[in-house]
User: Fold this.
Amino acid sequence: MPHKLDKIFYFLTFLISIIPIFLVLMLFSFLLYYSIPSIKYNGLKFFTSYYWYPGQVYLPPVNINGILVPYGSSFGILLFLYGTLITSLIALIIAFPISIVVSLAVNLYVNEKFKKLIISLIELFAAIPSVLYGLWGIVYLEPLLSNFIEPAMNKYLGFIPFFSGNIYSGAGILASSIILCLMILPIMTSVINGSILNFSTSIKEGAIALGATRYEMARLIILRGIKIQIFGAAMLGLGRALGETMAVLMVSGSVFNIMPSNIYSPINTMAEALASLLDSAFMDSTGMNLYALSELGLTLMLITLAASLIGRFIVGLGIIRGFTRGEEI
Amino acid sequence: MNIRVIKDFSFKLLGYFLILFIIAILVAITGSIIINGLHSITLKMLIENGDTTSGGIFNAIVGTWMLVGVGILFSVPIGIFSAIFIVEYGWKRYNSIVRVFTDVLTSTPSIVLGLFGYLFLVIQLGFGYSLLAGGITLGIMMLPYILRVTEISLTEVPTNIKEAAISLGAKKMDLIFRIMLPYAKNGIITSTILAISIGAGETAQLLYTAGWNNGIPNSLIKSQVAYLTYVVWAGINQPSNYSHQLAFASGLILIITVFSLIFISKYIKR
Assistant:
């Protein structure tokens, strides 16, 4: 083959390899460009108000400080922000000990053959499409929560303020958190399991030789050694939970303008608000609804990116979604 | 027995209990969808078009595969050629920049990708809700995955084989197309299959890029597309019993598709 063809091929592949960079830059600039009118109009109130109302889009728009907006509209994301953070944090609090204990137990007590089976079964959680989590959540989890688990929690844990008060239909913070917990378990277990496997065998053997039980080896040696990776795993899990849309949309109760009073209350998150409000935003002739939702999307993206990139940096594997699908990359 | 042994034993019990508990939940979720799906699905659903409240899901099945197909056609060539550049030509700093940007792309929430797809593809490029808009939005999500796996498969090609090819007089392109790509073939196919399984189960990107169609789309742009995950979401939120059945039937097809794709990819890898 002539040398010239090699050069053409070089430039061709170079141009193609720019596409991922180009896409990310486009993504940011589009979100930012569409957010600017909303940033100008809403200012800081966007983050401090929890009242979101698209306005009367069929009435003539009103002029506020020189900007045309739908009559009666108000854009505050505090409720969504709170919902995103609280559901993800509770999910993390549940998933954190489970993933640590499971990955330790799998490595300490289970033989090699079953270990592989268990790890790949847990990774199957990541393969289930998120609408199916939502489907299961609506049909089975919500009745289970509202009929049995939530009354029991109310009775026995009611002395904690956040756990007392009214019980609703089952759709709410607790249901969303449980579903999110199941969705982030595989990535956390994978990462922690990987770092246990990479942990120096001679140190582990040394601990056993000195007479430590396996539990002592796990608690005193391994856990201390992989502290940072565990933090990274938690960040990766958090990053996934923050951006989850469909499953939460189906089991959260999708409430507007009412701050939740306890863990059983219906809630709304940023991702699901974006999914459910975009439809009506197209009706708005002033475009302000779309601008405000773009700002919401930008905020969500920045929060998610912060968590995920910190996690990726710490774990240092360049882990991607596929990692949780039984593909240790 | 001394206290240390008891502690060790109780940790073991706790571990076993949690492992069994988690696997039980997995079985409960997949089992409930499969059993309900088997009770709901009928042959008529599989061959008729429908609108999530009546009829069947034929249009949704076809639409899902069309969207995934466009996504794969978009992401696989870009992913493979970018990976070739990174492995064979790229310098260190450029590669790490590409890495950071693909990481950003994977970390982006799917609904934000959907919003971008709407703003850029549907509005700016004027595709409307369509196969092209939905498929490319899916492809953007698949791209970092294909890129990364191909990159790893290409780096795994043994140096002595490459050196042997070069010493026999192979040019760069011979090396890439005759030695490296065939060697990395399995990795690329595996990643493509897994990307299909990810794409088939996505919803949030498609809500505002693909729309819904009671039939089969008749053109690449400005013709909306139906997809299975939408039937699950819309069906279960409607009161009628039949739409619940449609939701479970779509759930069954989705879960069978996704799981069998994963098993196929594991088989190929081996």
Notes: The CA atoms of residues 51 and 214 of chain B lie 5 Å apart. Residues 41-269 of chain B form a domain with the MetI-like fold fold (CATH 1.10.3720.10).
